[in-house]
Amino acid sequence: MTSAVRLVAQRELVLRLRTKWFLIGTLVIVAIMAGYVLLQMSFFGGEDRSRIGFAGQATGLSERVADAAAELDIDVETTTVVDLTAAKADLSDGSLDAVVSGTAAEMRVLVKEELNPRLRAVLTELSRQEVLTAKLAQAGVPDPTAVMAEANAARVDVTAIDPGSAADDQRLAIGVIMVFLLFMSINTYGTFVAQGVVEEKSSRVVEILLATIRPWQLLLGKIIGIGLVGLIQLVAIAAAGIALALAADVLTLSSVAVSTLVWGAIWYLLGFFLYAALFAGSGALVSRQEDAQSVLTPVTLVLVVGFVAGLNVMIVDADGVAARAMSLVPLLSPVLMPGRIAASDVAVWELALAIGLTLATIALVTYLGGRIYHNAVLHTGSRMKLTAALRG
After folding, report:
1. Cβ distance 12 to 22 under 8 Å?
2. 198 contacts: CB under 8 Å, gap ≥ 6
3. How confident is the model over 182-210, as pLDDT tens digits?
4. 107-110 sheet: strands from edge to edge
5. Which of 21, 91, 133, 378 has the smallest number of Cβ neighbours within 10 A?
6. pLDDT for 79-123, tens place per residue?
């Protein structure tokens, strides 16, 4: 990297990292993710959490109920109730979900509205076991407890011919999130490159800059600087999301998440360099910010259509023919391939081919984008035609 390119890149990096929108935008996204994780915890983590009070003779059942609930992954918090009047008040304000009284054979449960179905099943089974144990004793069975233990140990052995797991859902979720982050980052920071080019043209700053450095140095420095800003934000957001999800037990596949983050960073760089040259060349065709959208639309459209179509195909079957084919298309690979890496098992040859094709396309696009930029960056006035910019 020449000193001129390094200076331009450093200027873009420092200038944009110091802006309020970068810090605020990053914090807002992290805050939204934190809120989403907390929402997931409240919906799914607290769904089976029950606070149960035990009164009178039922006090001795608290430990057995907690153990039985734990076997079904139901989080139960038990407490002793002395005053039933106070317990009713606790039921009304939500401090307690149920109050159990009576004996195991004749159990009575007091609730505000309705009893959690899974907790009802636990209490019902416990009551049935108590009745059955008593009947076995009446029938003269020497050791009713041993008979009940043997009956409770009976299990149904289930074998699935096409097993699935929650891990598959987590992998798909990680892949979808990474695809979305990559799409947003490449599109956002690619647009920043184009806006920067147009801004320098409209203010005539580019004329001063090109008096000391070459067009390709200015373009490359701008792409590297803005690209690094995008990479820093992408990694910060993704890392914060992974940390939040792991801390909240929403995510258990830490190795998959970290691997996806690494591949996401690699593919972000490939994708950004691929699209940044197109965005820069497109931005160089106009001299006003008002005209920029018209020249950026074709580039953005390719990215958006590829993202929407590819995401839907990946959700249906990340290892299907359509997803595999689309992830090998250079203009789509940077967004879709990291998602496939997370959601399925990508063959080494597919990954190598996708990287090779993307690098070749980057070389071609950089040449064309650089040529357009070189020939159009000093053009002022009306929009320059693409054919004229390519001819020079």
Report:
1. no
2. 283, 286, 287, 288, 289, 292
3. 999 999 999 999 998 888 888 888 888 88
4. 76-81, 50-55, 98-102, 107-110
5. 21
6. 888 888 888 888 888 888 888 888 877 888 888 878 878 888 888
